[in-house]
Amino acid sequence: MAKEKNICEEAAFDNVYTTWVVSLRNYLFFKCGSKEKASDLSQEAFIKLWQNCAKVSPEKAKSYVYKVATNLFLNDVAHQKVVFNYRRITTIGIEKQHPEFLLEEKEYGEKLKTALSELTELQRTAFLMSRVEGKKYREIAEVLGISEKAAGKRISDALETLRVHIKEI
Fold it and tell me: Cβ distance 35 to 29 under 8 Å?
């Protein structure tokens, strides 16, 4: 019976890291929209894997780092919400200077959030790759394993959905 590789061995950990770090970073980028934040969260996930390497089998390493990364992302979002609410409360006197602007800004934020939630995961992925990363339809098609025309259609559908939900902006 062959000895099972252990994640605590440096070579095994390096193999897991090099295999999954780029895809994990891209996954987090599409969740948070920031390359720096995605890099930080992916590094933290792999640090947690290293710290708990004895508890994680090599077959479960990928799902472990993805789960840890998702939890780190959700914790960060919750923290940002607290920070935002604190800033809003402490700067309430400043915000009262332009109530019309604040109302429009709030309405825009709500419309944008609703519009993005209306996109399918496939549309959102293709749209973000096109608009955020600046990839061409051909590159998107290669990454997603679809035709160039299908990539264009997904982006077109995403734009149409966004236009319907954000008419007055």
Answer: yes
Site of tokens 């605590």: 8
Other residues' Cβ atoms within 10 Å of the Cβ of residue 146 = 16
Residues 6+ apart with CB under 8 A from 115: 161, 162, 164, 165, 166
Please report which confidence band the pLDDT of residue 97 belongs to, taking 50, 70 and 90 as the band edges.
low
Would you list the DSSP string of 8-53? TSHHHHHHHHHHHHHHHHHHHHHHHS-HHHHHHHHHHHHHHHHHTG
Indicate the domain borders of the chain.
Answer: 1-97, 99-169
Q: Which two tokens stand for residue 83?
A: 């920070």
Tens of pLDDT, residues 132-162: 788 899 998 988 889 999 999 999 998 888 8
Question: Is 132 in contact with 124 (CB distance < 8 Å)?
Answer: no
Tokens for 156, please give them.
Answer: 């077109």
Say how far residue 129 (Cα) sits from the centre of its chain.
12
Q: Which CATH class is domain 99-169?
A: mainly alpha
Integer-rounded Cα Rg, in Å, for the chain is 21
pTM of the model: 0.51
Q: Using CA atoms, how far apart are residues 57 and 60, in angstroms rounded to an integer?
A: 5
